[in-house]
Amino acid sequence: MANLRKEKRVRFQDSVEVSDGSRQLVREKGKEREVERPSPYSIAVTNRRKERSIIDQLSAFGITADNLVIALDFAVDNRTAGMSSFGGDCLHAVHKGIPNQYMLSMAIVGHAMSNLSVGRAGRPVFLGFSAADRDVFSLGSGEGCVRYDMHSGLRRYKQIAPYVPLGKPSSYAAPIEAAIEIVEKGGFYLLVVFTCGRNEEMWTTVTALKKASKYPLSIVFVGVGDGQWRFFQDLRMCLGLDDTPEARTALSNTSFVNFRDILAMPRVLREKEVRLSSACLHDLPDQYESFVQRGIITAQRCKCRRDSCILLPPDNVLRAEAARRLSCAEPVMAYGPYS
């Protein structure tokens, strides 16, 4: 143990950094060298250049918000997952005067996707999952109300969120299976699952991801609320240990982004928006090119409509809508892309 401690001390002393805020003095094994420390401004510029590069590549592929599926987690754990990050309120609370993390994160991602093509914003598919009486459902109640433009989708979410009965945490298989049904109609899609992350059904999720690997479907999990995010670490480990082509493809097509960490950064909101959108879209160009090389992107055959596994909204929502109790004050968001 003593030797181990000594070795750690020596390694720690091999490299020492002393900073005065703008420059860094680095000492390595008796040698000193001075390096320029990047300013917050230069970091912001670098991040925006990266985002611009990603946007340019996706624009060249003709991708818009039409290629986006937004899935929102309505599990009962949302009631306690905002204890430290949302003032102790349910993460789906919509009448606090500020946007909840679901609204803000999906607005940021949706805004980035909507701006990929000038003059053609597109309309994402909006889904909910893990409600008490619905595994997966559309936010709209009409036959054609699966897609909304981002502003209308945020407005619809804000209207129905108070009436959706929160259910037991289920696996993420339900939104993944729904996205697969949508992709089967043709085209490439990005499924973004916004979730509080408290889930225990690992193997059904792994099975669904392996099935999704056969389709041109990229999947990003965005964690909102307090966490914890151990499930997603274990998920990647399970896929990594599964030495099959499906698991390897699923691993490369799936990523996780911790929105709470981004939100907690001491930066202006615009910089946080850039970081979240860049993190969600970062792998898309390579994944899209991989789908093209595999020859699995087919032409869009028909418009996205309600499918066999995508149900109507929960009964509470339908009753509230029939009684004309659904309301949403403008602006939809106090701040953010759609304020």
UniProtKB/TrEMBL annotation:
One of its GO terms (molecular function) is ubiquitin-protein transferase activity. It comes from the Eukaryota. Transmembrane segments: none annotated. It holds the Pfam family Copine. InterPro entries: Copine_C, E3_ligase/Copine_domain, vWFA_dom_sf. GO terms for cellular component: nucleus. Residues 90-297 form the Copine C-terminal domain. SUPFAM superfamilies: vWA-like (SSF53300). GO terms for biological process: protein ubiquitination. This is Copine C-terminal domain-containing protein.
